[in-house]
Design a protein that fits this description.
Layout lengths: L1 H21 L1 H9 L3 H28 L6 H15 L10 H10 L3 H29 L5 H25 L2 H14 L4 H8 L1 H15 L2 H28 L6 H16 L9 H13 L4 H29 L7
Length: about 325
Amino acid sequence: MKERLIPILISLLLLAGLIYFSDFQKIVTVISQANPYFIIFAFFLWPLGAFIRSARWQYLLQKISIKVPFFQTMKIYITGLFLSNLTPAKIGEPIRSVLLKKSQGKGIGKSLPTIFLERIFDLIVMMLISILGGLFLVVKLSKIFSWLILVILFYVFLIFFGIFILTSKKRIKKTLLKFCTFFSIFPWMKKLGNRLDKFSTSLYESFSKIKAKKTLLVTFLFTLPIWLLEGAIFYIIFLSLGLKITLLSAVVIVPIAALIGVLTFLPGGLGSSEIIMVLFFTTLFSLTLPQVTAAVLLVRLVSFWTYAIVGSIILSTLKYRYKV
């Protein structure tokens, strides 16, 4: 239990360090001068982002013949995102399939490929925005552009490796067997090991259904506005504080910070993502450390902590009618 708290503690220490070196009093002063209407508008964009994310997942679920009321899909999605943000590098994403099984009785193996596909397209869109947008900012980002390419190459390898595994029932079973052996200390992992054949078949068949070209295109079209919206929220928050940045820089830096933040293996990139964003914006623009830190903290309040608060509330209201 103590080991699980270490990443969270590191994240909180990084956040505390950022606030301390940025001067807490100056951060408060900057935030106190914010235009409340812009901040309210940013908060109104949050449900839109959650709606699009949930609609994307429901679309993929329907492609594998899983029918769930949209409101239930959205509740499970937000709760799952909250729980995954508590895990290093967001490896807890599959918890959504567990929640879907417990609340709606839908098979874990059947729904899991939809989550994998979501993550693949999130990575693809984030990399596209980072590379294409980064080309316009390459002069100012020249010092870290080579590092960004290395990060992207790493994610490209992960994507191809994941697809390589999912396109073969034999490889799925072999990978899951190793996974179950490694995490055998958990009782539910032992249960999964006993049902490996059925689970592998279900996983393979579901992925085969959702890899159609039209499904992939629609998933991409769902994913693109999700990340553009994240950048727009960032831009609006900066405007609320009277800080001048470009919309392009906001749209580009958000996915870059997310890509690098995940690699720190901290829960939801908490602490690391904030520091990365602050470093980028203080480098790109003539803004003070307290100003940028204030903006970043407000952005994370909208895009991270809102999911945590709403997700925890929904989690306490979910009704479980089925066993995993």
